[in-house]
Amino acid sequence: MENNLLVYNPVEEPTPEPLMQVTVCGTLIPIVFVANLRAEDGDACDGLFIAEVPFIAIDSSLHSARASAILFHEIGHAAMLLSGAGYLLDKKSKKNQSGELEEELMRVFIPSFLAAIETIQGAT
Ligand SMILES: [Zn+2]
């Protein structure tokens, strides 16, 4: 899923009607499930966040737990971009390293964040 924003061309691969949507930083993002999802380079991938449209695509063959994990990962990419955190990452990282760094951050941060959320206890 590295550099997915740049390698997937939604014009060449029409997307199905979205079954779900999420609002990230005030932007409504459709979520579509696509059979045999592939990046523009032809490599199979489990999910993509396409910033230009925007939308999130998830491979429809994934079982629900994996699809959820991938969806949260892609929402993380959307939040990075739309919150401005991606800009900060660009600014603070070495030249041309921010995409790789963002991917690594999403892979470690999102599962840890979600696991922590699930452990919240006590009166709210
Ligand atoms: Zn990713």
Describe this structure in words.
The chain is of the alpha+beta class. The chain has a single domain (about 20-120), classed as Orthogonal Bundle (Arc Repressor Mutant, subunit A). Helices cover about 40% and strands about 20% of the residues. It is built from four helices and four strands. It has helices at about 5, 65-85, 85-90, 100-115; strands spanning about 20-25, 25-35, 45-50, 55-60. A four-stranded mixed beta sheet has the order 1-2-4-3. A hairpin with a 4-residue loop joins strand 3 (about 45-50) and strand 4. It is globular, with a radius of gyration of 15 Å. The protein binds zinc ion (ZN). Zinc ion binds near residues 1 and 77.
What's the SSE blueprint?
Elements: H1 4-7, E1 20-24, E2 27-34, E3 47-50, E4 55-59, H2 64-83, H3 85-92, H4 98-117
Parallel strand pairs: 2-4
Antiparallel strand pairs: 1-2, 3-4
Helix pairs in contact: 2-4, 3-4
Bound molecules: zinc ion.
What are the main properties of this structure?
disordered N terminus, Arc Repressor Mutant, subunit A, 124 residues, binds zinc ion, alpha+beta, 4 helices
Q: CATH fold name, please?
A: Arc Repressor Mutant, subunit A
- Strand order, biggest sheet? 1-2-4-3
Which CATH class? Mainly Alpha
Percent of residues in helical segments?
40-55%
Terminal CA distance: 36 Å
The H-and-E topology, N to C, reads as: HEEEEHHH
Any ligands, ions or cofactors bound here, and which?
A: zinc ion
The major beta sheet can be summarized as: 4 strands, mixed
How much is the radius of gyration in Å?
Answer: 15 Å
The helix count comes to 4
Shape: globular
Structural class: alpha+beta
How many β strands by DSSP?
4
Count of domain modules:
1
Mean pLDDT, nearest integer? 85
CATH-level-2 architecture? Orthogonal Bundle
As residue ranges, the low-confidence spans are 1-11
Strand percentage:
15-25%
